[in-house]
Design goal:
Blueprint: E1 2-6, E2 58-60, H1 66-70, E3 109-111, E4 117-125, E5 153-157, E6 161-163, E7 177-180, E8 185-186, E9 189-192, E10 197-203, E11 209-215, E12 218-224, E13 229-234, E14 238-243, E15 250-254, E16 260-262, E17 268-274, E18 277-285, E19 289-293, E20 296-299, E21 303-311, E22 316-323
Parallel strand pairs: 1-2, 3-6, 4-22, 7-10, 9-15
Antiparallel strand pairs: 1-12, 4-17, 5-16, 5-18, 7-8, 10-13, 11-12, 11-14, 14-15, 18-21, 19-20
Length: about 325
Amino acid sequence: MTRVVATGVLAIALVCGCGAPPAPPLGPAGSRFDDGTGQLATASVRLRRQDGDDGDGVRVEDRYDRRHHDDLGGYGGYGYGGAGYGGIGGYGYGGIGYGPAPPQPPPYAGVTVTDGGAVEGSVRWKSGAGVAWPAGCDATRVARAAAPVAGAIVYLDGIRSGRAVPYAMALVKTGGVAEVTSCAILPATQLAGPLPTQLVVENSDRHPVRLHHERPGGVTTAELDPGGRTQLAIERVGETRLWDGVRAPAWIVAQAHPYYVVTGDDGRFVLDEVPPGTWGLVVWYPPLVLAVGADGPMWSRPTIERRRVTVGKAATVRVDVALAPAR
């Protein structure tokens, strides 16, 4: 059984994944192979409107915005919202839905990119920092001097037009799955986009868990029994933290454009089909645990490095970043 309580200004929305066809493998986020169909295409989540629960669904309680409870659906159209998010639906993953419009992400226009270039490089730690928490968990994160930074998010900042978002194929968007294990919420970092989208959370632990979904615009608390699943809305650009104070948390960064990527185990990244011009490049890594006291872990700020890159026509720009851990 799953219980969801929304305490922020954003409401929780549930979508119908009835009979979604198998999806092709997801290409690297932000690459030309990222068709947006991704991990969630195999998920089957039935729409819930009532406040009850039949044992395998989602219970939505009265303490969130009643407009989303009284109106039908809310997520129709092509994929998640389609032609008018919350408006009259159409084809795809969500069917017909009605609902109030959420805050809109910054404008982004998909255009034909002529003579696009690329930004590629690597990210390594400049110095060491952090302690492993929870102790003995494989998912703990620390900084080790000169080691590659895996799981850093690299994106272009402020870009307003470029490679088209793969809209018609995007029945389910990039990212959006988090798994609760005995010591961590995985993956530790992921991307979500294009907006709006949703986060599907599954509890694979043998014990119930109470999670906090802390994102721009509000905080949602979800209680999941073993094997429980819920969906949480991601509607605004920015960082989301999913945590319970016991496990290593997960971070989700949402963007309105497709120029983003997560570094691999070797710390490398590539952003391709970038329009010629000068752009802001951001490397973002979630907070580290600096120490563990009687009241629990003490966290650093996110580690953020900003650069300006100039991309020429059909040119590749190399950017290697030595990331200094935030304190």
